[in-house]
Amino acid sequence: MQGPFQDSPRPVDGLPVLVEGGGVAxxxxxxxxxxxxxxxxxxxxxxxxxxxxxxxxxxxPTDSCAFCPLWTDIRRxxxxxxxxxxxxxxxxxxxxxxxxxxxxxxxxxxxxxxERCILCGRCAESCPLHAARPLGEHVYPPSFFMDETLCNRxxxxxGACPTAAIDLERxxxxxxxxxxxxxRASGFREAELSPLPEFGHGxxxxxxxxxxFEAWTAEAGRNEGxxxxxxxxxxxxxxxxxxxxxxxxxxxxxxxxxxxxxxxxKQASWVKRREPGVDCWIFYTDLRTVGRDYYAYSLxxxxxxxxxxxxxxxxxxxxxxxxxxxxxxxxxMTQKREIRRFDMVVLNGNLRPSVGDGYPAxxxxxxxxxxxxxxxADAASSAFQGSAAAMRILTCDGxxxxxx
Amino acid sequence: xxxxxxxLCRCCGQIDPAVDLAAVREKIAxxxxxxxxxxxxxxxxxxxxxxxxxxxxxxGADRIVVAACSPYxxxxxxxxxxxxxxxxxxxxxxxxxxxxxxxxxxxREGATAKACDLLRMALGFFRYGARSADAAVPVHPAxxxxxxxxxxxxxxxxxxxxxxxxxxxxxxxxxxxMLRMISRVxxxxxxxxxxxxxxxxxxxxxxxxxxxxxxxVAAATGFAGxxxxxxxxxxxxxxxxxxxxxxxxxxxxWLPRGLxxxxxxxxxxxxxxxxxxxREGKGAAKRTVFIQCVGARCPxxxxxxxxxxxxxxxxxxxxxxxxxxxEVTILHRxxxxxxxxxxxxxxxxxxxGVRFVRYDAEKPPVVSGGAQVERVEVFDVINGISRxxxxxxxxxxxxxxxxSDNARLSxxxxxxxxxxxxxxxxxxxxPLETRMGGIFLCGSARWPVSSGEAVTQGEGAAAKAxxxxxxxxxxxxxxxxMPEGKFGHARVENRFCTGCGNCVAVxxxxxxxxxxxxxxxxxxxxxxRCRACGSCTAVCPNGTVQMPEHNARAVGAMIRRAFAEEDFx
Lengths: 404, 569
Prior knowledge:
The structure holds 2 protein chains of 2 kinds. Chain A is built from 8 helices and 19 strands. Chain A has helices at 24-35, 67-79, 122-126, 156-160, 210-217, 260-274, 294-304, 379-394; strands at residues 17-20, 40-43, 83-86, 89-97, 100-107, 132-134, 144-146, 173-179, 181-184, 188-190, 207-209, 238-242, 279-284, 308-311, 316-319, 325-331, 336-342, 344-347, 351-353. In chain A, the strands form 6 sheets. In chain A, strands 11-18-12-13-14 form a 5-stranded parallel beta sheet. In chain A, strand 2 (40-43), helix 2 and strand 3 (83-86) form a beta-alpha-beta unit. The longest helix of chain A has 16 residues, at 379-394. Chain A is globular. By secondary structure, chain B is an alpha/beta fold. In chain B, the strands form 9 sheets. Chain B has a 5-stranded parallel beta sheet. A 5-stranded parallel beta sheet of chain B has the order 14-21-15-16-17. The chains are: A alpha/beta, B alpha/beta. At the A-B interface, helix 1, helix 2, helix 7 and helix 8 of A face helix 3, helix 10, helix 12 and strand 24 of B.
């Protein structure tokens, strides 16, 4: 903490540490390193910090908003003089040497500079293509942004902006840094489900991945928490949550994504809270509820809220001509096969590390990684893994180069 | 005498059209205590920061009212910058953009009047508002680690390697915890003793680590930076002073008395008993049946202890490897192997020929035999048939339960326990931190974990401790999570305190305590522990406890100004 307090200043020494990824794991690692007196360069690909938590309306098992505690951490990070944040950036070259690692960071500055944006909205008013718009509800620093896939560079926004925040022709910038070590906290992304056509993703607007469903039903989103079909805005009668869609499947992701069972229970409980009449079915293989209060949470969802559990992975998800989606499945606990019509289908499990093809077979190779980049992990695990990754660097004597 | 400076933002023309800033300026300048009013084109652009700081410094003001946008826009950042000025000014933010200019676009007179009202409310607040006095304590650059299992060893070694003395306290005679009771660790299948050796050697070798075996924590007082700990052992007691505490007390085992004929038939064992046999080179059997969720995920212990599935799978594969003819069956309700490492470990067991049979909690398996276990009957729900499995050995996979010392330590360190008796963290996103600053959690003291994860958490908790140990002094106001520091801390006006103790009862951080003062007892607030939640101010019957930053008189003055018909309406 730097400020007008009666603290003694933190000693800062050693080569800086590079943290790749600005989600929970990276933020935690950076804050812990800085608090212990190391300089940090945090590199984040998107325009904002927070990572996937920004895409979550609620977090299990408390069902509380994740953003406020994360927001204070992000603000602390941005105001910490020992931490340099590189947004819209990626590490393009890394050369290890005896004295440390030489890393080159490439930054693509956004057309609307967040530090100059005053949120007046004139760019949005002037834009005929609706390319300029607010970045989102839950972002820091707050700013408008330019959707470059829509922008045709007409330049009307440049004239409208009162603070000269907009430059549509910004070039990429590169900076090279010598760092003591690199922490990989690049998190996860959703895997394309097209190799698994039986789940029907992309064939019907009401077949969504769980993150799409989270955004669609988010209280802080445009639906304000209402549970409606994407296709026609009507109220769904029933929703199917399909676990391990894409995961624990050698055709796509052989691993278990670890967070999806609780995620589905959370979403199904939320649907039940908003619309008790909507039937929620969770199709699972093993209901993995291993954290604190997770099993009790599943009991509340099933016995309390009336979420139905079916053990079995549906073999076919198919849109019906007259509306609705057919699911073909076997309840493996009763050996009954069934075809049932659902109004919405949520696909859970297709999460893969953001960087690379997967996980190394030898776990020791991932020693410098934390969070989902190291092993499928939820926000809490990512947080303590980030702290541990920081500690492994801090324990290298003398603050010199070392492997994490 | 220092006064108030008002800074009004034009927001590059976003505010003027609807709010007459010249009129506002004129009216506010006439108010008591206002030494200057500045109207600026913008406040939040990169080039503004230095200019505003200079203006504030030149005015000599110790109170600043900023009239700009909503705190959720950019104004929060301006306040954050100003709050770092060396004289720690009081700051009030007034929203005249979203709240006045934008919402009353068509009513310039009304918007202007509203802006004036809001500013006058802030000025009213300043008449009684104050800032909490900061206090700093020297940090005792040493760490207490309670428990020398995987988590505690990792924490102690990490802190010591980073350069700080560590007191590592262990109830038993030696370090190692659960690793001393098991043969191998998953997923590497390395011998537990090998995993442990480097840590134990370092504890012995590193002069910064004082190992206290057969010792318990008897009492603790203090706060982050300065804890006074009383250690008690058979040979006597010792007092230590440390800046941070890491609780790594691990978990306890649970015995399945009365279940599956445990204690009745020979060769019905718990998983830990099988591990012990494994360490002695025993435990091999031709036909072994593991039963998962024994005593777990049931009404008595409604949780999954996470490490029982991988542990059973580890032992099952080892049995198959040592004897390829061995028949090994795992009866389970869900195989809990999340992630990529454990999923691969599970598949490895399938390939190694371990059989998995799923049972229904409603129809649990039945173990039978004479003096010795002979068979297990189970309803295989996936195939819909009853099976009778011959068995020479039945292994009951029981959960880890909260350590027997947790309740006592919870009282001593004032860390709440969850309903199962494990220590509770502050918030899921801050899983190693507790409600008490300077006290951290790791390993199965927090929630059952494998030894590998316990090590990770131990290292993480060490990183958290380092944030305190690395400083010479630590101040009360620096202890909040916000970049501006802590909001303030509660203060008791001794003259009016009746010593009723309401504040002591509600304070979640044990910051309020009654102290003798002359013939009476009055409440005292520990600034280092107070987290500015305001609970005490809400229950105090006569308003004696107040948060200087948000005290009742200041809020009262603000409300009066909001409703008073004054000259410039």
